[in-house]
Amino acid sequence: MSDRYLPGQPHQLPRHKQPMAGYQPEHFLLSVQDGVATVSLNRPERKNPLSFESYAELRDFFRALAYAPDVHAVVLTGAGGNFCSGGDVHEIIGPLTRMDMPGLLTFTRMTGDLVKAMRACPQPIVAAIDGVCAGAGALLALASDLRYGTARSKTYFLFNKVGLAGCDMGACALLPRVIGQGRASDLLFSGRGLGGEEAERWGFYNRVCTPEQLLSQAQALAAQWVAGPTFANGMTKKMLQQEWNMGVDEAIEAEAQAQAICMATNDFHRAYHAFVAKQLPDFKGD
Q1: pLDDT of residue 59
Q2: Does one domain contain both 83 and 172?
Q3: Which of residues 9 and 267 earns the better pLDDT score?
Q4: pLDDT band, very low/low/confident/very high, at 259 (cuts 50, 70, 90)
Q5: Quick one: pLDDT band at residue 2, thresholds 50, 70, 90?
Q6: Whole-model pTM?
Q7: What is the C-alpha to C-alpha distance for residues 161 and 177, in angstroms, rounded to an integer?
Q8: b/e for 163-172, b at 16 or more Cβ within 10 A?
């Protein structure tokens, strides 16, 4: 594994304000339109597995979104009727069996850094999940803020199927918060598939769509976010993340400070004047 994949090392994207519309990734597809970035994993012949390179480029892409003035929401999806089949068996799993412990730890920290980057980027992320969503792919879905799926989709936290613990890329912290401790234990101990309708009942999916409408509905949700107060949306995401580690009193104080910052924005004043005029506010994100 080369230095470019080490945790904290930049892949391609500079860390300063730069529109994403001109960025051409090597290992996934990207389109930016009207403030929505659609990220498509694009190895459909293998159900969109991840490689060392795609892990690293996705990590650096989500880090760089903090500096992207033209992106206010993200849709994460996969090409060819599947979301992501996890780490590529030949390109990742095989090499891992030949690594020493320092190399293994470098890899596991790098994959965890992708989840950290998704949780830390200010833009809300909706995952559009069809077909197979397995292993690391299930963690990409879990690291997103919302998940839209299909009835035919199957999500597998299958780490124990390959002799590994279920505590991968933050699964033991994130999954119980989304679906509850008992249900998370069921999936992480068994590695069984979670079907689309069950995923919606359990709260893993926010909505079940038809395969034909999945991407368009996820993009429509992202467009709603873009039309809203995007600075405030970013604050909401930040507080949802930070308050996991706070007591109630500490959280109330943190929210008081966050809300006071939002009250100083132009969007807050726009909303007030629009309400007085019995109009809808035209938010600008400032």
Answers
A1: 96
A2: yes
A3: 267
A4: very high
A5: very low
A6: 0.91
A7: 23
A8: eeebebbbbb
Assigned token pair, 249: 């009193």
In a shared domain, residues 201 and 266: no
One domain for residues 163 and 74: yes
Q: At what angle do helices 101-120 and 136-143 cross, to 10 degrees?
A: 30
What six digits make up the tokens of 90? 């030949």
Structure tokens at 153: 């989709």
273 and 267 Cβ atoms separated by less than 8 Å = no
Where helices occur in 168-213 by DSSP H, the ranges are 171-179, 181-190, 196-202
| Token pair in block for residue 54 | 């795609």
pLDDT of residue 161: 87
The answer on 236 and 214 residing in a single domain is: no
Supply the range of the domain harboring residue 31: 3-227
User: At 142, which CATH number?
Assistant: 3.90.226.10
Span 88-132, pLDDT tens digits = 888 888 898 899 999 999 999 999 999 999 999 999 999 999 999
Q: Do 221 and 234 fall within a single domain?
A: no
- What is the SS3 assignment for 194? strand
One domain for residues 223 and 255: no
Cα dihedral value 34, 131, 116, 264, nearest 10: 30
